[in-house]
Amino acid sequence: MLKAIWDNIKGLYSLLVGLSITGRYLVSPRKTIHYPRQVVDDEILASFRGPLELTRGRKEPGQTRCISCQMCVRACPGHCLTVIKGDAKAPSRWIYDFSLCCLCGACVEACPAGALAFSHKVYLVATSREELKLDLLADLKARTEKEAPPKNE
Amino acid sequence: MDLSLAIFVQIIVAVLLIIGLMVGNAVVMVYMERKVAGFIQRRPGPYEVGPWGTLQAVCDSMKLLAKQVFLPGNVDFILYYLAPILAFLPVLLLFLPVPFGPILTPLHINEGIVLILAFAGLGVLSNLLAGWSSNNKYSLLGAGRAVAQTVAYEIPMILALLAVVLQSGSMDLAKIVGQQGQYPWQWNIALQPLAFFIYLVSLVGETNRAPFDLPEAESELTAGFHTEYSGMGFALFFLSEYANMLLVSFVCASFFLGGYKGPFLDGIWWTFIKAYLIMFFIVWIRWTFPRVRFDQLLNINWKWLLPLGLLNLWLTAVLVKFLV
Question: How many domains are contained in chain B?
Answer without folding.
Answer: 1
